[in-house]
Amino acid sequence: MSLHVPSSTDVKKLLSNGRWALKLIWSTNAPLTAGLAAATFLRGMVPAGLALFARGLINAFVHEGRMGAESIYTLLPWLLLGFGVTVIEAIGPLAEKFCTQRLHDDVNLKIASDILEHSAQLEVAFFESPSKRDVIQRAQQNPADHFMKFVEESQALATSLLQTLSLVIILVMVEPLIPWILAPFALPYLFFHWRLSRRQYQEEYRRTPQRRWTGYFVSLLTSRRSVMEIRLLELSPFLLDKFRSLITQFRDRDRTMYFRSLGGSSLFALVTTVVFYLIFVRVIFNALKGVLTVGDIALFGGATSRLRFSLERVIRSLSGTMEQTLYISNLIEFLSQRPQIVSSSSVIPSSSRGEIEFKNVSFTYPGSTEPTLRGISLHIRPGEIIALVGENGARKTTLVKLLARLYDPDQGCIELEGIELKTL
């Protein structure tokens, strides 16, 4: 089993992303978030409550011997405990589902609005840069789903952690060795899952350009605008082959990770099952010696099976939470992008005659090594009509983009009514 221990930088980034996500979720709908946290806490205490209920009921029966009608008062506290825990176990999932569904809708609206508002502030160059397109592509890959998966994994982590801790506390009363036996197996399994989650995120991160290509191929083959040309030029086999090639690569690499996850999880399940069974045998021997009661055996037998499941769920939920914070970092990266074209002031021209002047303007598109315009000077007087004529690629559109200030020139300046565009 190959391990990867998170570095301090990894941990700081995960915690920072997690705090940012929780702050956004809380600001979106605080009452629903609080309700979800309360339901999670109550559900986390259910296994321990059921274990105590079973132990108390069995010990009361054994202690009282043959029960009479008057003995119902001895059992009443345990029956009330069992009833309360059962009600929580029945209603808790319904409350969690309600809060999660409502919160998902609110978070989806919040994040979608934030992405669109931020996109409206960015300059055209951002959307024409392949590397920047990757940034927005990652941010748009189901951001609300990643947030809600983060919430669900955090909720499952909190529930499972409460269950695990409460069960361990109860089991320690029966077998004090339990915590020392769990740690050597739990930590390596946690690091194993963290490594898998990190690798899966990195794989998806690298796939962003290929994901865009698959979307492009699907668009060409299904769009009303392109389907006629595709049919006439007989491009369908070529596009299908390209699409299948990319998807096949994704499937094969994912299959490798699935096998690794299955192997590591199976090894953990097998080892912990054997260890818990051996401890259970030890508990039975102690009961035969009179050190433990029949209720202790019932408690230990029921609680250990729940404990192994809860412990595995803690590890899976923790690694899942960390994985979702990595995906949330994609949205943080996009929202941290700042427009490069900003106005230094809000000067308004004193007249609107329409005088325009390019003064030794040079410009190179982002990512290009060759200048598109070099040393262009042009003076358009008020009332003068100018036609830009040239072949495709003669830089006519680039000139107009600069005039509209979709880009700023690298050198020189453009003036309207004698005032530089940057200051308007």
Summarize the structure.
Helices cover 71% and strands 6% of the residues. The protein has 13 helices and four strands. The radius of gyration is 32 Å and the shape is elongated.
Describe this structure in words.
The protein has 424 residues and is mainly α. The chain contains 13 helices and 4 strands. The protein has helices at 8-28, 30-44, 46-64, 72-121, 124-128, 130-139, 143-172, 178-206, 208-222, 227-232, 236-288, 294-335, 396-403; strands spanning 356-363, 373-380, 411-416, 419-420. It has a 4-stranded antiparallel sheet, with helices on one face. A hairpin with a 2-residue loop joins strand 3 and strand 4. The radius of gyration is 32 Å and the shape is elongated. The mean pLDDT is 79.
The proportion of residues in beta strands is 5-15%
Separation of the first and last Cα atoms: 62 Å
**Strand elements, count:** 4
Quick check: average pLDDT?
A: 79
Largest sheet: 4 strands, antiparallel
Number of helices: 13
Class per helix and strand makeup: mainly alpha
Helix proportion: over 70%
User: Would you list the SSEs in sequence order as H and E?
Assistant: HHHHHHHHHHHHEEHEE
The gyration radius over C-alpha positions equals 32 Å
Shape: elongated
Summary tags:
424 residues; mainly alpha
Write the layout of secondary structure elements.
Elements: H1 8-28, H2 30-44, H3 46-64, H4 72-121, H5 124-128, H6 130-139, H7 143-172, H8 178-206, H9 208-222, H10 227-232, H11 236-288, H12 294-335, E1 356-363, E2 373-380, H13 396-403, E3 411-416, E4 419-420
